[in-house]
Amino acid sequence: MSPADVHAAVPNGIPVPDLDLPYPDRPEVITANLLKITELAPDPRVRFIFKNLISKLHEFVHETNLTTDEWMSTIKFLTRTGQTCTPLRQEFILLSDVLGVSALVDALNNPSNGIATESSVLGPFFTEDAPDVPLGESIASEGKGEYMYVEGRVVTSSGDPIPDAVIETWETDEKGFYDTQYTDRSVPDCRGRLRTDAEGKYGFRAVVPVPYPIPGDGPVGDLLLTMGRHNVRPNHLHMMIKAGGFRKLTTSLYPEGDIFLSSDVVFGVKKSLVVKLTEVDDEVEARKRGFQKGTKFKLLNYDFTLLTHDEAGVRGLDD
To answer: Are residues 181 and 35 in the same domain?
Structure first.
């Protein structure tokens, strides 16, 4: 609401705090006053999070003796980050990714138990409009890259099949671009949604993923240049799997041999997610799997293991 729409500015209705708050005329008083005020937050979790955030942020400002120009540059950077976001581009997720925060939050919330398939970062290129793809069909239109067939099972921690699990998958084309990076995108491509069969099996045609640079034309790209870091992700195939009663799995599979595996710009690679692609050179087999041209394709076979909510220590989530 603009000032022209009201007769006077209206406060939010929260009263003046009944606290001993000295005038903030010294750096340490600013921090102390803010921490006192933060105690008024009614939600205990909110109080805990913001007390820690404020303490660490103010400590950072003290330790670095941050200048006014440096802080204004930071504000301008964050403003640009927000302005770069669109319904199909999430620059803030990208920022979280390159600073390792996405990977850290994921690792803390999805610790490995040695049985379930490990998780990986979501990344900024997931969309809600993936088409439904029948088992054995393709997520990629013809000409998007080297043929690849992906197959396997989705099972419980005891190895039993999980039927009707929903699999969302997405990847780049052979040029290293997601469909959302094309200005003329009219329909989803190199992404799809499918379901496991009664035996927990899945299978679909795709293309061999390639390493690619994350978008370098925005503030996150500028940040990486300032830090002297490359902006490349190793080749990978995103997979998100949901089934009733089980914890949702968001992960990626990383074909072995990529030189960027250990220095992934978003820290998403885990050893258990590095996979082998088998080359198949058999025209009959290629046609059987639905590939239209040539005799060769790469085969990726991988079984996913999901945890129940009880096994994961989570109840009633991600059904």
So the answer is: no
